[in-house]
Amino acid sequence: MAPSGSRNIRGGCRRVLYWIPVLFICLIVAWSYYAYVLQLCIETVENLGEKIVYLLAYHVLFILFVWSYWQTIFTKPMNPLKEFHLSHSDKELLEREDRGESQQEILRRISKDLPIYTRTTSGAIRYCERCHLVKPDRCHHCSVCDKCILKMDHHCPWVNNCVGFSNYKFFTLFLAYSLLYCLFITATDLQYFVQFWTAGGKAHDRLREYWNGLPDTQAKFHIMFLFFASSMFSVSLASLFAYHCWLVCKNRSTLEVFRAPAFRHGTDKNGFSLGVSKNLRQVFGDEKKYWLLPVFSSQGDGCSFPTCLVNQDPEQPASPSGHAAAKSTEGETHPFPAKPLRESQSRLLSNGQTWTDSEGPEDKDRQGTSNPALTIEKET
């Protein structure tokens, strides 16, 4: 009992420590609200019209920024559906087998009805030994969350959450609105900061008189430090936001940039790219009225994705039909039909790609043979 209790204590301490970066961001945002609204707009800005415009614009950006940050933190990452998990009997069977060929046959039998096209770099079926499941395309195991995350991009300490299929849109909007928030503060605070530091001679003396005429020294400190903080955050956020805009346009995740997804024909860094317009719709959805709002509107279910590849894996079925799998309950099963593509993917693949209802004898022969390159490989 003692070792178990100590592990629980260590785990609880780690969970508390993981919230420290989030707490730091919350304190910075709370201070910036106080400094901008009270010290700058209410106490310092004298023009009433300017004060109203500043406060209205600021609060619009502030609400969108906090809303998207909240959604990124508290949206639970989606895990693979139960169809991808091994049954108890399959797990025991897999553990008893020592030969790679036998393990290969077990995994091939389990995954033959699943919409999986990616492999490991050695050509093996992607299997997670910690979660005991066949990994869907673009799914990876997070060592921090100790779970497999659908379309995992990265684990972000600043939101204490995995960024993946369920919250990637929120994360992108969080970067966008936090950048606009910092740029707006920098631009409106600039005149008070620049005049103080660049004035010289008599102008400097006049500015000193103006500066000394501010309500108190506390307002001076907040105005100066607010500009420093917002401008520095703007630089880092601009580079990070530009990088993720590039990822969205290329339909890649951060993990796929460092390790390109592998298909039967080999690795292909652009395997999931369908063009800029369709790539944007995969993340933000078909209805543009929801693009700028932190509400979920991404396409698909996170378990399967259309590819730009002409020659799909003949041994794997097409993507599941409809969106029912994404809304499945604990006790329901949703088999994956071989054809056709689900509706959202059919819109994405509107280039005329079609499926036939019959398979030639060569395809059936191919499906009946085993691929010796497919072996179990530990992959995170």
UniProtKB/TrEMBL annotation:
Give the record's membrane topology.
Answer: Multi-pass membrane protein
Cellular component GO terms, alphabetically?
Answer: membrane
> Where along the chain is composition biased (Polar residues)?
346-357
What catalytic activity is recorded?
L-cysteinyl-[protein] + hexadecanoyl-CoA = S-hexadecanoyl-L-cysteinyl-[protein] + CoA
Under InterPro entries, the record lists: Palmitoyltrfase_DHHC, PFA4/ZDH16/20/ERF2-like
Q: State if Transferase is listed as a keyword.
A: yes
Q: What is known of its domains?
A: The DHHC domain is required for palmitoyltransferase activity.
Concerning its family, UniProt says: Belongs to the DHHC palmitoyltransferase family.
Question: Which protein are we looking at?
Answer: Palmitoyltransferase
**What organism does the UniProt record list as the source?**
Astyanax mexicanus
